[in-house]
Design goal:
Length: 287
């Protein structure tokens, strides 16, 4: 942690682990529609997919897992960051070739984004950032919006380039979560973990980040104020990784303990949950 209790500015989001019933079917979707590839063997019944040797998605297979009920907390979407607008154009082509369908496409002023769902209804955003110097700021706050995306303009970047797998520089840009209460979420993410609140302008939503990014974690109550967590063992989010410098882990563990928040440390990092039951793995960025 920095001297003022803020989380390290180099903090970023790592892999997102999902529990799925049809491991092979969902794995094929992420390979074909998103252009991800396997990043190495691991636990039995867990597939790891990513780009450039970096794991972005972990799929934990459980054929008996029930679906996540509606109006519960959990994953709203995971957000995969493309390195350029041309790479976003390739993503559109890849999705179409796989026979998948977009559920939306938006210009957020700071970024351009595509939306879709995997075969088990987990939300996905694929986006590219505009340069930081182009992000609009008013009264010290980054301004975001949801405007129609110029799809023709994006596709114009593709030209005759070969699509192929997703770029090696592709990474997990942020996660967006359904939570029960924004005040409790802010107390945890800003007050305990030390993220900075960057955007408050969306009804029912809050965005937090490290290092001046537009957001590393989006939080919303769109599943309903006071929504309960999904039953244990349901399909959907198991946890997502927050990657910090190794020396930060002890400080974060101490802050969680001081706040009375349950946390368990093992060789992979610190496992904990936000107040809405969303799983988090605080992990060394060097691991």
């Amino acid at each position: 942690m920095t001297a003022n209790g803020s989380i390290d500015p180099g903090t970023r989001i790592g892999a997102v682990r999902l529990r799925v019933a049809d491991l092979e079917g969902v794995r094929e979707f992420y390979e074909r529609a998103l252009g991800l590839s396997e990043t190495g063997a691991g636990e039995e019944e867990v597939a790891r997919l990513g780009a450039g040797g970096r794991t972005l998605i972990e799929l934990e297979g459980d054929p008996e897992a029930p679906g996540r009920p509606p109006r519960t907390t959990g994953l709203f979407h995971l957000a995969i960051l493309q390195p350029s607008r041309a790479d976003l154009a390739k993503a559109i082509h890849r999705i179409a070739e796989a026979g998948a369908r977009l559920s939306g496409a938006s210009d957020h002023l700071v970024s351009e984004a595509l939306y879709l769902r995997d075969p088990e209804a987990n939300g996905i955003e694929i986006y590219r950032d505009r340069p930081r110097e182009e992000w609009p700021v008013r009264d010290g706050q980054i301004q975001m919006d949801s405007l129609p995306l110029d799809l023709d303009g994006v596709l114009g970047e593709l030209r005759d380039a070969e699509v192929g797998p997703t770029a090696e520089e592709t990474r997990m840009g942020h996660v967006h979560l359904n939570v029960a209460d924004l005040g409790d979420a802010e107390d945890f993410y800003a007050g305990v973990l030390g993220f900075e609140v960057t955007v408050r302008g969306y009804p029912g939503a809050l965005f937090v980040s490290a290092g001046g990014y537009h957001h590393h974690v989006g939080l919303n109550t769109w599943a309903g104020e006071g929504a309960p967590p999904a039953p244990e063992g349901s399909r959907g989010l198991r946890w997502y990784e927050i990657l910090v410098p190794a020396e930060e882990l002890d400080a974060l563990e101490g802050r969680l303990g001081d706040a009375g928040i349950e946390a368990k440390r093992d060789e992979s990092g610190i496992h904990t949950r936000d107040p809405s039951g969303n799983g988090i793995l605080l992990k060394s960025a060097e691991a």
